């Protein structure tokens, strides 16, 4: 399955007033190889194992395979992950015909707010809310696998 998404910084917390849902997420990586990542995630009360391939030149499109697994197995697999398990809340915000997912990070990535939107094709037009900041699609620095090993609090901004 191909995943087509764009990623943006978020300017402020005003998106929360329109959020339909907020879900706690903990995730870690069993592998952060440049050609693929293998992620373990607990989202709410469910566990997932996800494999993502290398992105295309723009970083917008890449292969993604995901399977739900028992949450107890996900908890065990998180213990095997590389350093830097990420904790965040994911907010779902409807905007026009799309839904933005905004991640509010905690711990060593506290202060970082990132929005993602999934699209049907790379050049699909979508409405941009006023809380949406600069686009960071394809910028490896904002990939969760990077944030595990290079937390936001260590960046020189």
TrEMBL record:
Any Pfam family: CYTH
InterPro entries: CYTH-like_dom_sf (IPR033469), CYTH_domain (IPR023577), NeuTTM/CthTTM-like (IPR012042)
Domain CYTH: 1-149
PROSITE patterns registered for this protein in UniProt: CYTH (PS51707)
Source organism, top-level taxon: Bacteria
PANTHER family: SLR0698 PROTEIN
Name of the molecule in the record: CYTH domain-containing protein
């Amino acid at each position: 399955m191909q995943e087509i998404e764009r990623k943006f910084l978020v300017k402020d917390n005003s998106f929360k007033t329109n959020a339909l849902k907020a879900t706690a997420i903990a995730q870690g990586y069993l592998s952060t190889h440049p050609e693929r990542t293998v992620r373990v995630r607990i989202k709410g009360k469910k566990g997932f194992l996800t494999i993502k391939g290398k992105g295309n030149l723009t970083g917008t499109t890449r292969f993604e395979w995901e399977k739900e697994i028992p949450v107890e197995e996900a908890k065990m697999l998180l213990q095997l992950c590389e350093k830097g398990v990420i904790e965040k809340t994911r907010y779902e915000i409807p905007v026009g015909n799309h839904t933005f997912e905004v991640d509010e990070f905690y711990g060593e990535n506290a202060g970082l707010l990132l929005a993602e939107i999934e699209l049907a094709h790379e050049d699909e037009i979508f409405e941009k809310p006023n809380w949406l900041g600069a686009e960071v699609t394809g910028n490896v620095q904002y990939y969760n696998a990077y944030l595990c090993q290079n937390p936001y609090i260590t960046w020189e901004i």
